[in-house]
Design goal:
The chain is mostly beta strands. The chain has three helices and 32 strands.
Length: 404
Amino acid sequence: MHRRSFTAVCIPAVFIALILCAAPVSADAGWMTKGVSENTTNALGGKISGDFILYLGGAEGIDQSQNRIYLYAIRTGDQKIVGSPSANRTVTGPEISGEYAVWFETPVMDFDPNKTSTAPNRVYLYSLRNGSAEILDTPGTAEWPKIDGEQVIWLNESDDSFNVQVSLYDTGTGKSEGVCELPIVDPAGVLFDGDHIAYLNTEGLFLYSLDNRANTTVFLNVFGNESGSDVGHYSMGGDYLIYLRHSVNFEGPDKGTFDEPYLYTISTGETKQLDPTTGAFSNSSQPTAKAEKDLEISSPFTDGERIGWVYSENSPDSTIVLCDPKTGTVEKISVHGLASRVSLEGDRMTWVETHFPSFHGELIYAQENAGTTETTPASTPGFAAGIGIVALLTALVLLAGKKK
């Protein structure tokens, strides 16, 4: 009776051990995430640079006077408010690069037509090293500063035209100068990286070079009686400018609206279309599949090495697509919520996450955990240990069978 019980236990154990040793061993590839913003703060967007995250947070509702600029230290987990608005004002437009951060202060929007504000805007430069902020010497209409390394640009209304004046400030010299006037229609969306400024005007998406003072056309809007296309959101870093082409078809089997990601390489002037779900390059002349038209595509991003965007399909969840244009490597990150305003730097990322039906935004920090899922080879200690267990259990079963 004892022998039969022992054998009945050991034989199933042998088969279980064999199955476990043959199964793939996961290195837990992916991204480890954590919430950064406090529960009482509605995260409105963040940027990551080095060991710091700068983000904009506000209260629920439309009271923009409650906006604050937060600085979060990744290594220690400490965070503090570095930007608070004056009375009847708000802060917005935070950007961070290297040892500096910028944002601007502007009057709160007043919906009373009988009230007008004459208070000037203020552009702030914050030193991460000194922990102090200063107001840059700017006119009262300065807004939407952008920073790259030790250089800052901001925008001003032009006195004698409908163009927007662009000023350049050097943190090393402390001097600023007007560098150009551009027909910008979306000041908040202007991007600055290296010697390039990306912007939208009424005709499409353009690049302005501070080096040769010339404009380059990236995409021209197309409008007709039956269809039209323009650029929605876009992101720039290094040699890459990724944008979403927004198209509308009024007639035919392709009737509807949809977005498609495109990659523009600055050094070559080449544009390539990307499949929104697989991340692979596709033929730009190929019509969009109906299944892809049902996708909600948003938040293109790049750090100059990899590119990406977010998509969702009739679901409260979403997927972040991360691609390496040089190697063709594609990674998908599943988000249990709607991800937006993605910021990437190397193996670190942030995004704002919301959960339907709430519109409360939580800022998420993600750290890449390198690894792959594969079958472990026989030479590894894990496999050898498994074989040892099987051998031991088999010997015990045979020994028990000989006993009477």
